[in-house]
Amino acid sequence: MGKRDGAIAIGPAGENQVNIANIASGHRFLGRGGMGAVMGAKHLKAVVAKGGEMRIIPRDVGKFEKIKKRATRYINRNRFTSHTYRNYGTSANVNWCNEGGILPVRNFTVGRHELAEKVSGETMARRYHTRHSTCKPCTILCGHEGTLEDGTRHGIPEYETVGLLGTNLGNFSPDQIIRYNDICNQMGMDTISAGGVLGYTMEAGEKGLIETSLRFGSDEGVADALRDMAHRRGFGDEMANGTRWLSEKYGGKSFAIQVKGLEMAAYDPRGSWGQGLSYAVANRGACHLSSTTFAPEVMFGFLYPYTTRAKAPFVVFFEDLYAGINSLQTCLFTSYAYLLEPPMVKYTPRFLLNLNMRYLPGIATRLMDVSIYSGLYGSVTGIKMSPRDFLKAGTRIHTLERFMNTREGISRRDDILPDRFLKEGRVGDPKQRVVPLDRMLDTYYRRRGYDMNGVPSLKTLHALNIEITGDKENGDNS
């Protein structure tokens, strides 16, 4: 490979078709959904792209540069993107989540811990004298690397890795989390799902369902278990199949922290009810990047977390927005700056903004300024697209994904959370609150134009120009 070339590649986990295998691209990873296993099943080790083969020139260079300047200005003046993530990385979320009671601890039994500060982004920045190690090109600069006591440099784990391979396992040692992160990277394995599998295994061991030496708060055997999963050795061969498979064989479905077979990201939905709805209905399972409502609920305080009010409209809005952003191939973190910095939001008194979002969500979402995204698309392609058109494109993408899922049998019974979040309050929560999912589901389905079984209606599909084939033409929409 030349210096200008790029590649995506799998590791041992992908070669052994581990269900939670990912794909590496330099020091970044396509982490979720077992894509590495798909490449492994096709005996495909890597794909190389030759650099310098073509140039991408915006159709309207002047318009593109103008929009880019506004986007950069927003990013550089937004405190979250220009200070928090730029200086401390996504692990700055540790303190936010700990304070809000949504940090996963001991397989999501607890929502906060007094030792959480030890593994926060702020602490690791000081401890490891971090510097930027980012995607290219990048304005936010959230990726970091640091130096350990032995002088070696390592990538600083992202928040999800800290949450699932750290606090969720009762592990508050940043050195250990970095080691587990390095192993997963070398093996080509998703850190979120790996941590979820370990958390389930540790609790199943405590409850006598599985014979294992893995224990919460102990480093013993964890590194070996990760390697065994990647190479499908011993009990690692079974762990490699994920928490849903394990719970179906050994029991403990109530604490197998997954939705639709995908292990949950590091935000406890009992302290963020909108995020609970988002996890349940996400097309690929318990994904925090399908719709990120924990941010307005817990991190920014725009939405009260312990109510069903306004949650369905905002889950729908963020699903549509994120589907559009991901199709542009730009970073989701830009949404913090692009949505919060326009004058309509930035200079509206906080109490008025909160009231609008909580009690007038339809109006609030329509006032959200997504013009940077639609402008970037139009300036690059030459195809005019209004902000409303951009969100409608996201609606179509998300609904098409859902339609494809329902044709494979997905329905309301799959839009569920583990019983831990529906029946068990968090340890330390005096009100023992759980997620009232069913009420939010009904509202969400109506907003989406689905029937009460979670299937997109024929009217919705036709309105979005989604082609219907086979029995669907004859009205079979079950």
- Average residue-wise pLDDT: 94
How much β-strand is present in the residues?
Answer: 5-15%
Q: Helix content range of the residues, please?
A: 40-55%
Report low-confidence residues grouped into runs of 5 or more: 472-478
Total E-strand runs: 9
Biggest sheet, strands in spatial order?
Answer: 5-6-7
Rg of Cα set: 22 Å
Number of DSSP helical runs = 24
Distance between the termini: 50 Å
Shape: globular
Structure description:
- The structure is a single chain.
- The chain is mainly α and 478 residues long.
- Helices cover 48% and strands 6% of the residues.
- The protein has 24 helices and nine strands.
- α8 packs parallel to α10 (222-231) and α15 crosses α21 (387-407).
- It is globular and about 60 Å long.
- The termini are far apart.
Task: Sum this structure up briefly.
The protein is mostly helical and about 475 residues long. The protein is about 50% helix and about 5% strand.
SSE inventory with pairings:
Layout: E1 6-9, H1 12-15, E2 23-25, E3 28-30, H2 35-41, E4 46-49, H3 61-77, H4 79-88, H5 93-100, H6 121-128, E5 131-132, E6 144-147, E7 153-155, H7 159-165, H8 174-187, H9 191-206, H10 222-231, H11 236-239, H12 243-250, E8 258-259, E9 262-263, H13 273-281, H14 294-299, H15 311-328, H16 334-340, H17 343-346, H18 350-359, H19 361-367, H20 371-381, H21 387-407, H22 419-423, H23 437-448, H24 458-463
Antiparallel strand pairs: 1-4, 2-3, 5-6, 6-7, 8-9
Helix pairs in contact: 3-16, 3-20, 7-9, 8-10, 9-12, 13-15, 15-21, 15-23, 18-19
